[in-house]
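Please, structure for the following, as tokens.
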Amino acid sequence: MQSYPKAFHAFHQAMTQLLILPYGQEAGEIAARIVRRVQYHLHENPPKTVAGWSEKDIFLITYGDTLHDNSEQPPLQVLKCFLDGYLNEVISTLHILPYFPYSSDDGFSVIDYLSVNEQLGSWQDIEAIASDYQLMSDLVINHVSRESLWFADFVSGHQPGRDYFIEEDPETDLSEVTRPRNSPLLVPIHTRRGLKHVWATFSEDQMDLNFKNPDVLIQMVDVLLFYLARGTMVIRLDAVAFLWKKPGTHCINLPETHAIVKLFRLIMERACPGSTLLTETNVPHEENISYFGDQDEAHMVYQFALPPLILHALNRGTEKYLVQWARNLPDYPESCTVLNFTASHDGVGLRPLAGVIPENEVSELIDSMHRFGGFVSMRTLSDNTESPYEINIALFDAMKGTRRGEDQWQVQRFLCSQLIMLGMRGIPAFYIHSLFATHNDLAGVESSGRTRSINRRKWLLEELLPELENPASTRSLVFHSLLNHIRVRKQEPCFHPNASQTILDMAPGIFAFLRTSPCGRRKLVAIHNLTSAHQTLNQPDYVGWFDLLGNGVIQDLQLKPYQVLWLAKTP
């Protein structure tokens, strides 16, 4: 029996209960190992007071080297200078995509979890950012690079990595396993012990970790605590849905996976009160929000259905499916919320549309994106057929037109998409390229051979800044419009993540919802024209309300193409 102070005794018991499902009789000893690590972490890193989320929370997603200049200044320092100069009063949280040494997948094939990629900068640079912005870091938990020391141990038969990976007989029936890619699930590896077939969900360079070995769990707990000690306040569990493997099942969203997510939340709440656990689970909506658990798993999940639904709505000029989906959204637990986004380093995922939008309309959307310069990535189904997995395109270019073709409304349509995200319940997250209205990077696709590179341009500041500062440029118009909209949002209590949301029926082509502040005393109606037509609405209840987006007191509801109104009862 372990001897702890009373608070840690309860902590040990709670972890033990969670660990019984995946680890059985070893649960108590594993929990004890974690307690010792958390006690040491708290001794070295006393907890600090962190405010809860509010309408002022705005996330920004970027690679560490999206911005660079012609000096010898490391990219992380260039990023910090840009943030301080342009966005320090705009964003609250910065998600720097994996900034560790890596071998592929633009960072998500991690070689060393505890080092900063020297081409980006140093831990000092990371900590400097974390001192002025809430930092979000990726814990790439499902897999590791085959160039990592752990995998080198596996190949040579040495500990600790020898037992860190999943060997599987290639004759095993794995047809039920959910595949996010069309690459082989098992990779043949020549080791000192002979030829082994190793589980690799995402690519032959990304070897899945064997969480059935409790030492792997402990290693990841150590990494988690290390990131918290370095100033990270939001932990993003990458690809966590695939964490636990059990042949004969889909190997996704298994109960053991949920137990480990609960464990990580418990650890974070003890080691760093106020920190946030975010799960990256690009799966259909009901499966996605299952990671809230009973307010004991993720504090936050991505709103994965939002990007393709907004894209479809604006491409087709219809509110139908967006309204149906949004009306059925549950009331999130008070301690949980969603991260709303329209674009990210990945493509626009199509899996969340399953059962929501007819397949023929999804196909028409894909056809439009092809015409606007985009690509589509496929995944392999259990019957070995392929299915569209995600659209790869820069969001600004995805808004070039509608299913009928290109038109003159690209900027207005794009801004409408961003205002939908800003207004909906949850916390908004901007991909940095959305702020810049970045076009498709076809040269990046050609040089990398990867379609996802279309949305991962590296900007030279000497090229970007003159455009941002030129009032006549489209890039400047988009950038400063978004910054102004964000500033308005941050002053409006109706946009608090816990403010209620009610979907309204107004007219075809109109997406509208009511937000009510947590105290219940203030109301705001957000109205979005999803079409290229002028719309006049017969909504007398909102005449005389004040438009926060600059149109003053509204006497009649006339909307220009893709116009958005944020109507409040008082200025």
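Residues 6-23 form the longest helix (18 residues). The longest strand covers residues 134-140.
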